[in-house]
Amino acid sequence: MRRVLTDYHVHLRPDEPGTTAERYLTADNAERYRLVAAERGIAELGVSEHVYRFTQALDVWRHPLWVDTARDDLDAYCAFVREQTDLKLGIEADFVPGREDRMGELLAGRDWDYVIGSIHFVGDGALDYDKYDVWTSASSPDKVWRTYFELLGELALSGQFDVLAHPDLVKHWGDERPRPERDPRYFYEMAMEGIAGSGIAVEVSTAGLRKPVGRIYPDRAFLEMVIDAGNPIALSSDAHVPDQLGYAYDRALELLDDVGVRELCVFERRERRLEPIGAT
Ligand SMILES: [Zn+2]
Ligand SMILES: [Zn+2]
To answer: Which ligand is nearest to the Cα of residue 165, counting in written order?
Structure first.
């Protein structure tokens, strides 16, 4: 039987301004990613550019970050991935509460292999970007964490996404920002009903190891609750350059083995199947 490692939550370029489609959304760049993935035993490789890099996203939400960032055409991106690469076609789309219909319209009619759903904002405040930092105006860490995990549950139940990305991103800054005093499982529970009810795939992301918090997303207690709920797991690095593909997968695979996960989600045209974990 085929064994598989996946990296689906992947960006073909860093988030910095000036990382244009002309320079990064190219067959040569995609090939660089494919080569590094092959070296690291990752057979299932896809890309998931941020939705807010595309002008169509401004019909959904006009957050200042999105207005600053939306430059590219979404259909040109889809055509590029399908016609000039052998990568799976994904997108990382934000769940913006109250804008589900508009995001639904954007996602519809494009032939994704998978849609990754993210929460990067609580209100207008960013969780992992200091320019619009949610913590400069946060009334209390409990409020931020509660809202964040409630939104995760809503994202799952919206039915618009195949994968729930970096599921405890709210911890991104680690000790550099306040943190609630109570047991984090109290907050995780707020997301779990929606996650369990939706059957959404939940991402284990090694990106957190590269961030101030220095930990895998999500924490083990969250992952155990997800497994108890019966949701399948998707493994990704959230790479923004080729060398980040499969980043610290040894750590992720050890965690998955420890909690009894033996299979990973594989996606094709928004159909999901499970395959045994292993490098090719
Ligand atoms: Zn993200
Ligand atoms: Zn990402």
So the answer is: 1
